[in-house]
């Protein structure tokens, strides 16, 4: 049965990860390092309704547009103070979602009733924003990733050049779109910390032809922290890089079958 997991994993995810853009990139996953994996499962699976997916030694909660992975480990801090300030999901019913999150162990840290949105702090200091969309075709969907940076324009331009993100605005925020996620930026008043080793350790992007994609990155002068590496136990080929502002990015091929 264990040998079949990678194949089942890829087949199951085909409807969840968005098709890639012209550069071959779409949103893939986030990975949380946690001293208590069961507390993360209780929030992401039991409270929010993510579908539990097991791939080799890893567990993910699967939502339309993204997977949330969590593994046991000690982190150096939460998302506050990190270059990745928070994650965000759209929900069909904000009040019901808030009640389930509180029951699951989350702390509500900010409410904006007039805008039908709120912020919650998950175990390990992972900050998550929720926005209501009553007309949505699913109870929960991935919405955006919010960076904090002192060089907003430069960072947005880098994500546009490297990953094909389309620059624009999301309300008052400078932003850029990738399939499956809106990337948004806040200006940071002080230096922020890299993501590696924090509770939200890295952002995962699914790429088409990972070896060819990484070869283009290296030709453009972008250093890889780890070259494309087959992980047969996961059914994935993975690579790692770090953006110039400290965001650890995992590239995967195999989260979706095209």
> Could you tell me the mean pLDDT?
92
CATH architecture: Roll
Taken together, the total number of domains comes to 1
- Helix fraction, binned, reads 10-25%
Class derived from helix and strand content: alpha+beta
Assigned CATH class: Alpha Beta
SSE arrangement, N to C? HEHEEEEHEEEEHEEEEHEEE
In whole angstroms, the N-to-C terminal distance is 25 Å
Q: State the CATH topology.
A: 2,3-Dihydroxybiphenyl 1,2-Dioxygenase, domain 1
Q: Numbering strands along the chain, what is their spatial order in the largest sheet?
A: 2-3-4-1-13-16-15-14
The number of helical runs is 5
Tell me, briefly, the overall form: globular
User: Regions with pLDDT < 50 over 5+ consecutive residues?
Assistant: 1-15
> In total, how many beta strands?
16
DSSP strand content = 35-45%
Largest sheet: 8 strands, mixed
Radius of gyration: 17 Å
CATH-assigned homologous superfamily:
2,3-Dihydroxybiphenyl 1,2-Dioxygenase, domain 1
């Amino acid at each position: 049965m264990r040998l079949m997991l990678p194949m089942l994993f890829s087949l199951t995810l085909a409807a969840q990860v968005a098709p890639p853009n012209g550069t071959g990139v779409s949103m893939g996953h986030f990975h949380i390092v946690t001293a208590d994996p069961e507390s993360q499962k209780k929030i992401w699976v039991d409270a929010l309704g993510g579908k539990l997916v097991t791939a080799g030694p890893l567990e993910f909660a699967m939502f339309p547009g993204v997977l949330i992975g969590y593994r046991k480990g000690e982190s150096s801090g939460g998302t506050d103070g990190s270059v990745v300030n928070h994650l965000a999901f759209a929900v069909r019913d904000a009040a019901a979602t808030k009640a389930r999150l509180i029951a699951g162990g989350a702390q509500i840290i900010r409410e904006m009733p007039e805008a039908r949105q709120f912020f919650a702090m998950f175990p390990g200091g992972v900050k998550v924003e929720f926005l209501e969309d009553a007309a949505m075709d699913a109870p929960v969907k991935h919405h955006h990733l919010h960076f904090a940076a002192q060089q907003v324009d430069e960072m947005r331009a880098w994500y546009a050049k490297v990953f094909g993100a389309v620059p624009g605005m999301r309300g008052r925020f400078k932003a850029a779109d990738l399939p499956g996620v809106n990337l948004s930026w806040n200006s940071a008043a002080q230096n922020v910390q890299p993501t590696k080793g924090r509770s939200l350790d890295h952002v995962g992007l699914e790429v088409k032809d990972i070896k060819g994609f990484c070869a283009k990155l290296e030709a453009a002068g972008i250093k890889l922290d780890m070259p494309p590496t087959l992980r047969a136990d996961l059914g994935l080929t993975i690579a790692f890089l770090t953006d110039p502002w400290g965001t650890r990015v995992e590239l995967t091929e195999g989260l979706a079958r095209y």
